[in-house]
Amino acid sequence: MAPRSISSFTDVRLDGQDKATNEELEHDYRGDPYAEFGGYEGRIAMEKKLLRKLDLRFLILVIIYILNYIDRNNASAARLRGLEADLRLKGTEFATLLSILYVGYIIMQVPSNIFLNRIGKPSLYLPTCMVIWGMISCLTGVTTNFTGALLTRFFLGFVEAAFFPGALFLLSKWYTRKELGLRTCILYCGNLSSNAFGNLLAAGILDGMDGKLGHAAWRWLFYIEGSLTMFVAVCAIFILPDFPSTTKWLSPIERRLAEVRMAEDAGESDMDTKEEGVFTGLILAVKDWRVWFLSLTLTAQAVGLSFNAYFPTLTKTLGFSTTVTLLLCAPPWVFATIVAFINARHADKTGERFFHVVGPLFLGMIGMVISLATMNTAARYVGLFLQAQSYAGFIVFYSWISNTFPRPPAKRAVALAFINAFSQLGNVAGSYVFPANFGPTYRKSYGITISCFGAAILMCLFFRQHLISLNKRLDEGQDENAVATRKEAIKAAAELEGISDEEAMRRAKGFSEAMWFIEAATGRGTKKRMLTTTWSQALLILISLLPEQSQALKAEDFKLCKDAAFCRRGRALAGRALEAGPSSWRSPYSLDKSAIAFSSTKASFTVPVKSNIHPDVNFSLEVRVHEDGVVRVRMDEVYTSASKWKRYDEAAQWALTREPTLASKVDWKVGSKDVKATYNGVEVVVTYEPLKVVLRRDGKDEIVLNGEGLLHMEHFREKPAPEAKVEAEAVPPEAVGGPEEQVVVEPPKPVKTSAWFEGEEDDGYWEEVWKGWTDSKPKGPESLSLDIAFPGHSQVYGIPQHAAPLALPSTTGPDALFEDPYRLWNLDVFEYETPSVMSLYGSIPLLHAHSARSTVGIFNAIASETYIDISHPSSDSTKSHWISESGILDVFLLPGPTAADVFAQYARLTGTPALPAHWALGYHQCRWNYQTSEDMRSVQRRFDEDDMPMDVLWLDIEYSEGHKYMIWNDKLFPDPVEMVNDISAIGRKVVVIVDPHIKREEGYPVYKEARDEGYFVKRANGEDYEGWCWPGSSGWVDFFNPATWNWWTGLFSLEDKPGVAWRWAKSTKDVFIWNDMNEVGLTSPRKQVESLANERCNLKPSVFNGPEITMQKDNVHHGGWEHRDVHNINGMLYQNQTARALVARETPAKRPFVLSRSFYAGSQKHGAIWTGDNMGTWEHMAIGVQMVLADGIAGMSFSGADVGGFFGNPDPEMLTRWYQVGAFAPFFRAHAHIDTKRREPYLLDEPYKSIVKSILRLRYSLLPVWYTAFREASVNGMPVLRPQYVMFPKDTKGFAVDNQYYVGDSGLLVRPVTEAGVAEANVYLAEDQIYYNYFTHAQYRGSAGGKNITVPAPLEYFPLLIRGGSIVPTRLRPRRSSPLMLHDHFTLTIALDKNGGARGELYLDDGVTYSHERGEFIWKEFKAATMGGVVSISSMDLGQRNGDIAVDGALLANDYKLDNAFANDLAGVKVERIIVLGLKNKPKKVTVGPGRTELEWKWTVGSKTQANELVIKKPKTPITQSWTVNIQ
Q: What distances in angstroms separate CA 575 from CA 342, 568, 710, one per listed residue?
């Protein structure tokens, strides 16, 4: 049943609802948090209205609290006008009158709140109690002796006890934790105000009523204030609300919203279960040690605040009259009220409590010190001012308490009452702290209060430190007992709530306020059980598994080089070489030239390699020359039948598309010192001793391997036995300087002859421990070190993924920007630092080196953890040092000599980017998470209502039942197929997340099949690996096992097939896939509570119970390979198999879309990637541009950064600029964290909404440009986004420019604005050419030596320039989605260069199938040329002329036909407008075709800075045909 609209609730009665209606309401709550309230915006508006109503009604609580304290404390004022004398009080009897009130107050609070929770009618209960205490206050005025006064005071406390804890409980039933602190403060301001205005009221009564009607003034004080209390009580009956479930003045939908708000706030309903007895809450509270600890802390504060009850007495010591004394009491409390309000509001805003509590207490202590130190009138009054401010901390402490016990309500009611009641013991004791005989200085009294404040501060600090310690243990996640206890906590919480474990986790997603917490584990091997099994106690553990809103990256959770033994060894090796110097340092590796063996074509040779530090270990080197000139260098150990281990040598097999074709013949020349070959202008030289490989061009070294002598392949060896200590004979006394004794003699260590090269210590050879995780290293050391130099090349690019500049800065040497090497080890690093060498989600070991002379590259086929040091020893050279944990040496030298050549050479190795589905280049709207199927429909509807184009809606993990991917949550998504069909009706698609962690649950068919077939990754002991991620206990499919491939494909089948046991039946052809967390991401018991004071449990993605948020390195994959060997490849295989599954599900096959977060060399063949969990900051916006450029250089053209940032709430200006950035990234998606505000573009206020709308339309108008650029990338590997150095390889000024780029070969130059408040931006033009502003048609001229120009960049647009000589095809009709644009007409924008020429391309196919591989496409070239005063614009077909390069992997020269099926379908599509920029003179006429048919046109004259513009209207030239337009 779909959730109902607002209107459907208008006929619901306020009472007497039938069962069906209640069930519908409950279903609506579980199924749709927004639709029933009119959508997201409707709910926000309704919530604001509800809060306004509540705030107005709850203001009467402040008035009641003022009267509560006035009636309680008026005895102190009455004391100044004869109360003691009239009642004949002696000794401590007055103090007893003060304290006896708190006896009754203590006794009644807990029973009162229990009763209030049961009846649920605070609007009757609290005013009734108020009437009674008003009557008792009046009766105090007629007492004549100590006994009568004692009884009235006792019963006054007894009845007043109902109010304050009851008020706190009532507020907690209506307000969320984020709202409660401020409301508690406002309530408590009634207390502070009573100290000010109560004394003013008392001053007026005592001064003017003495003797009236024969009664003393102090008696009138009780009569009048008691009567006032009763009057307000009667009013309160009609004003105060009851609980949400029992209030009748709300409409049903408002009451529903009130209940949903509180349920969302803690992840469960705010009602007690039917099974709970009257004393359930009391039992739970008494068993919770936190209740007792907080009670003691509050009691200490209460004693410290006892000066309040004696404030008039203390003020009297200033020496003024009674009336003046009472008037002087007011200012400190007025000021204290203001300070308390500001302090509480700031505490709520920052989420910090501890310092907001202890700060005011310290201030109060300072005031007390002043008061006890002097009798100076001014100083003592200042002291009183400061003392009053301590209440600000006291109030925040109350809000802290309220947030500590959220559920169940029965427990919360008792806890609040119990703590408040217990703390009244402090008021009882405080009544005796300021006896008259301590005056007038009251030094002893102040000594007591100072001590109590100090004790309270220490107790808060102790508890804070306790939580920090607890957090640290849980944070490290290394104690299995802690993990086990966490599981128990989750199960206990779920059992208590009557829900599944997964549902408990789902409900807790929105919970962001820290509880105070269960201790999960203590010590090694000691398991501490939960104190209780309540939901609030389990919640800490649940929150630890959730994503963090805005907690900064914890860099210490991830390794640096110093934390990895193999990297330490590699860097130490480089250090020894540097210290020795090039004249003394010599590589130990050499070749046996006598054993060189050439292949039959001499395209390759092998040769033995020896190491003079390990002469018994044999290595082999192989050098191959490929057909395209690429040189492959491989080196490995030589194995025998006795070899126990083998180095991982399969990385290249997974990365390469096919085994490269070797050159037909290479002429190698064997010399006395080296072997060399020359081909295609390239020379390869392999030196024998020491081993060195050099690639030269034109006699100059371009790539050098082992030129620095840092090659080191650590060989396999036997683990040495532990060295035994030998007990020697007795040693004479004279030998040891004492009595004869036995000594243990350490055997002398054997001399390590390789120490000059390998170092003295065997650092981390056999075992390594980091943050409690032990890597067993069963194979021992097997790292690989290799230096690769690029002489004559000043810049290097590549090795993504890092949040670093495009031109990679140095990590060693005097100019080093970074201290650590660049790291390649796929990890889930959220909110990553910028700039940084920290490894992120993907690893591509590809490096380009560039100079004005040439571009070269290397691809190092390694899949293990790798660190890369970069240095620039001179202005025209670069060196790199690669340190990998395992694997063979397998390096491909890419000779270039141009960047385009290097891209093509790498693409021939690892493949070109797949040509994506056309719709995938549109706008993607994503969020963690769209809540329901109706929410999805609502988002689509809003895009359409606001005329905003959008192609894809995304679903994050919450669509699934308990995070069992492919299993829909039927409560939230009851109609998934119908939902997808509704979205796809206008050509849109749905992308659904399928993460690699498979929930270990017997009833989950995906898990059961994978387990039964043995498809999971194994532990070192052969058991299935179990880790923790979003579903809890999970397994990971081992896609290195070929047996998993067909099984995984079968899961995505759209129909039943033989051999497919279970498939995702509730899916459609319009559902595509998002593979996240495939680094491999796990989860851990992380909890990010900064301190006890903060209280906020920030939520964060990913880990889980493995080192660095991933699985252990000694896990085992198919073939016996350790995870350390294959880690970086793992995510690519997952994306590959998912893409294969989508292709296989339909006939004819459709192009898949699979987004992956993890990637490796070759991932470009399988789909898109993105830059991961970025932040909504300007810095992340800017670095995202550089990261996407780096991805493109490494082959990953289909890349982008999440618009708006995954974390945070960007302001409208930032979000608008981010849409401009995203619209010019290949992959264009907006995404946001679950705790961020909804920020769909239609929610923006004007003018931002209209600006973003125009940006989206701009993206869609340029889709022909993007698709044409992707066609080229899919054929030759040229990146879709082209950095400055690629476009202008000889312009040295542009080598490091990475804040602007070109889109394919379109001529569009993009310079995003990534700073706040920018109105103009600098753009670098590298050539003497005209550039035109895309938006305004202003013209700019560059220069041959490069030139910076200033371009306007108001918020409405940004520097987007068209390079002179370009023709840009666009489709300008706004549509809701890109498939609806298929038959739209085109506009050509022709930007003439300085010679009057221009060129452009347009490629079209159906954008969905693979029919283009059969020649069904349109590929046109547009040209403009000026000759003899006539500008000719022509269209020519490229398919026939270039069939061999039209489509990757398909030779179409003989198959392509102009009238192919797709071209026939678009026969009616025409060019409807031609815009010519830069035409020098106004034309006389414009004609088309051989018949010279004249066309209509419009001329706009320009200026020196503005281009002349000619608009040719309706040329009606078919896009499928060749034609010519002449401008005369």
A: 57, 10, 10
DSSP-derived secondary structure letter, 1200: E
Contacts of 1147 (CB under 8 A, 6+ apart): none
Asked whether 557 and 743 are in contact (CB, 8 A), the reply is no
Q: Helices 330-350 and 354-373: crossing angle, nearest 10°?
A: 160
Q: Which tokens belong to 1456? A: 């392509």
Strands 1154-1156, 1032-1036: pairing kind: unpaired
Q: How far apart are CA 670 and CA 689, in angstroms?
A: 14
- What are the helix (H) ranges across 267-329? 280-287, 289-304, 311-316, 322-328
Nearest-angstrom CA–CA distance, 40 and 938: 9
Count of alpha carbons within 13 angstroms of residue 353, beta-carbon side: 32
Q: Which helix (H) or strand (E) holds 189?
A: helix 177-208
Contact assessment for residue 703 and residue 893, using Cβ atoms and an 8 Å cutoff:
yes
Which tens digits make up the pLDDT trace of 1168-1193?
A: 999 999 999 999 999 999 999 999 99
Q: Which residues contact 1397 (CB under 8 A, 6 or more apart)?
A: 1365, 1423, 1424, 1425, 1426
What 3-state class would DSSP assign to 1390?
strand
Q: How, if at all, do strands 1199-1200 and 855-860 pair? A: unpaired
Q: Which of 1439, 1436, 1444, 1472 is nearest to 1456 (CA)?
A: 1439
Return d(Cα 568, Cα 758) in angstroms, integer: 11
Residue 412 phi/psi, 5-degree rounding, is -60, -40
Radius of gyration over every alpha carbon of the chain, rounded to an integer in angstroms: 39
Report the Cα–Cα distance between both ends of the chain, in Å, rounded: 68
CA nearest to 1119, candidates 1041, 1047, 1044, 1045: 1041
* CB count in 10 Å sphere of residue 1479: 20
- 369-407: buried (b, 16+ CB within 10 Å) or exposed (e) per residue? ebbbeeeeeeebbbbbbbbbbbbbbbbbbbbbbbbbbbb
d(CA 240, CA 121): 10
Helix (H) or strand (E) holding 1427: strand 1418-1427
Q: How far does CA 727 lie from the centroid of its chain?
A: 59
| SS3 per-residue string spanning 351-386 | CCCHHHHHHHHHHHHHHHHHHHHCCCHHHHHHHHHH
Structure confidence at residue 1453 (pLDDT): 52
Instruction: Tell me the per-residue pLDDT of 495-552, one tens digit each, with 9 for 90 and over.
Output: 433 444 544 444 443 333 233 232 222 222 322 222 222 333 333 333 333 333 334 5
Q: Could you tell me the maximum CA-CA distance found in the chain, to the nearest angstrom? A: 130
The answer to whether 918 and 679 are in contact (CB under 8 A) is: no
C-alpha neighbours within 13 Å on the C-beta side of residue 1282? 24
Could you give the CA distance from residue 1519 to residue 81 in angstroms, rounded to a whole number?
Answer: 102
34 and 931 in contact (C-beta within 8 Å)? yes
**How far is Cα 801 from Cα 804, in angstroms, rounded to an integer?**
9
For the chain, which residues score pLDDT lower than 70? 1-36, 38-40, 72, 177, 181, 188-200, 263-281, 285, 351, 399-400, 402-413, 416-417, 467-468, 470-553, 723-749, 1081-1106, 1449-1454
Q: Collect all residues with Cβ–Cβ distance below 8 Å to 1482 and sequence separation of at least 6.
A: 1499, 1501, 1508
Catalytic annotation, residues? 1076, 1079, 1173
Rounded CA-CA distance 154/104 in Å is 5
Taking the C-alpha atoms of residue 1213 and residue 1231, their distance in angstroms, rounded to an integer, is 17
Among the listed residues 1248, 1182, 1251, the one whose alpha carbon sits nearest the alpha carbon of residue 1221: 1182
Q: From CA 1193, how far away is CA 796, in angstroms rounded? A: 11
How many angstroms separate the Cα of 185 from the Cα of each of 62, 395, 400, 958? 10, 6, 11, 36
DSSP conformational letter for 732 = P
